[in-house]
Specification:
The chain is an alpha+beta fold. The chain has a domain at 14-138: Endopeptidase. Chain P, domain 1 (Glutathione S-transferase Yfyf (Class Pi), Chain A, domain 2). The chain is 55% helix and 7% strand. The chain contains 28 helices and nine strands. The chain has a five-stranded mixed beta sheet with strand order 3-4-5-9-6, with helices on both faces. The two termini are 51 Å apart. The mean pLDDT is 94. The protein binds zinc ion. Zinc ion binds at residues 465, 469, 495, 498.
Length: 683
Amino acid sequence: MAATFHLAATLPDFDAVDVEGIPARINALLEEARAVVARITEQGGEDWDRLWLPLEEQADALDRVWSPLRHLHAVRDSEALRQAYEAVLPEWTRYHTELGQNRALYEAWKRLAERQEQPERRRALALALRDFQLSGVALEEPARSRYAELRQQLAELSNRFANHVLDATQGWVLELESEAELPGVPESFLALYREEARSRGLSGLCITLDLPSYLPAMQYCSDRSLRRRLYEAQVTRASDQGPRAGQWDNGPIMADLLKARHELAGLLGYDDYAELSLATKMASSPDEVEGFLLDLARRARPLGQREMAELQAFAREVDGDQADPLQAWDLPYYSEWLKRERYRIDQEELRPYFPFDRVLSGLFDIVERLFGVRCVEREGVSVWHEEVRYFSVLSGDEEVAGFYLDPYARQHKRGGAWMADCLVRRRRADGSLQRPVAFLTCNFSPPSGGRPSLLTHDEVTTLFHEFGHGLHHMLTQVDIATISGINGVPWDAVELPSQFLENWCWQRETIPLLSGHYETGEPLPESWLERLLAVRNFQAAMQLLRQIEFGLFDLRLHRDYRPGDPLSLPQAVLDQVRAEVAVVPVPEFNRFQHGFSHIFAGGYAAGYYSYKWAELLSADAFAAFEEEGVLNADTGRRFRSTVLERGGAEPPEVLFRRFRGRDPRPDALLRHSGLTTEAEEAG
Ligand code: ZN
């Protein structure tokens, strides 16, 4: 029997959201928050309940209005929601900037931290003080004003970089008269290109530089010169090269960004921007990250070279001299062909074996066996769309958390998949406990024509990934909001639980739990299972080396930058990195860095390595299950109590060590990527 549904009372009522009234409501709450901050800093004292809790209380009250608004804006957007969201955003940002600059609050919390004995409170305060310092609160004039100026400048530069990439991506299109110009491209993609032309009021076909349009042509079109034109347009976007050379050129913006970042790091007392970026991450120093990436590169390169030689040999075999030597614009084409030849697997053909409900019940089954929690659907909960379902998470008879699941793509819903918090776990001022609730959002194809929603294996993996984030948020046992769940977890460790859970989509033992033909119920046939597992490692070393190239470039760019030194400019750094790690040809005109939005317009500056770093952690954590049993309940409970329940309450390296009994090692990542075998690892 399901436990009593206590959380029902704390969930938002989506039918009663007063969209027009939200901006006024949030402004009032922000005013109250300012008053709370003023009271805290005026009254002094050294008591947690008076110096910390009132602000946490107020932040939670704000979240209860803000988080449904932000969520609805993403999943059921409307003109009214967009207006409310845009009306709130500037005030919201202003309040948080103000808070980060509040010297009196910083001093008050510093005093509080000095007298704090309780470990979790100490941790929450330490992180808060660190963030205060990084927002320049401790600076004296004129550094303080200069800091604010640089922040402003950086925000504008990043924004211009992103706009240039967008304009350049949309500013070029390949127009074709007939499909005869696209030999080899399957009909489904030709239809896409015809549709693209129609939407532009043109006859014939159009290929754009957006990946879903660009990639199929690169993978299937046998006309080499056409592929070269597409490739050149793609990799010269926003640069001094290619068909739109000089238009939207991001070169000067990158130079300005690097200069401003370097100065900002100096103001805060760091040698370089890489050091500043790592101040909030698990990795301890830029050199440690470099060592990590170079070590992976060293191990991956021999296999990468073999994969490249194999591809060259295959291309020569099927196309003779015209495919020798292979150029950058030939790689996607021959790779796709080789993959089809070798594995004969098509994601689309797997769909009937992965009906959504079957996958979901398999996921719940696995999670119950591993972590001892059950997911039980609840009826009668207010939701924002009829497709949305709500589940309670039960540990024994205790209702520990809940989540909304919004599985299907539809109009006015943002694409992609993500986990966001609706409520965070925290101890309220009256001593009662607020339980965590998550929003899980995906964009799978909805049921249609009497068929249920059918997933590709990639989509199955996506569901597990997001559910991993969800478990991190929901199983936390920490009582302070800023370090409970994924809060306070460093960026390079936050993908540990999510990538970790993906592993159960790739096991011989567990795939049968997740799959069953939607008509016959029969599990995925053995031969397909074999091919699915085999294709996972196709060109794994080449892909790994590409990620290392980006990560190393990003790290060195921010670590080695010196004003006025031409060797520390992007092209020089990238050339050097490629000489060390790349195994694929790159033409002279390639300006990849001019479109590298992750690091120039997003939050990944000196942090791109995080993807691989977290993957190493998740692979090594999963290796414990390979050693002790993929569905071993003891190992699962141990992961729950050491990692999932502790969230940001302790540094991730400490939690990892507690789970694994040692520091992380790269062996499992290398083996999972097909770079070593179990035998080699033992030797
Ligand atoms: Zn993720």
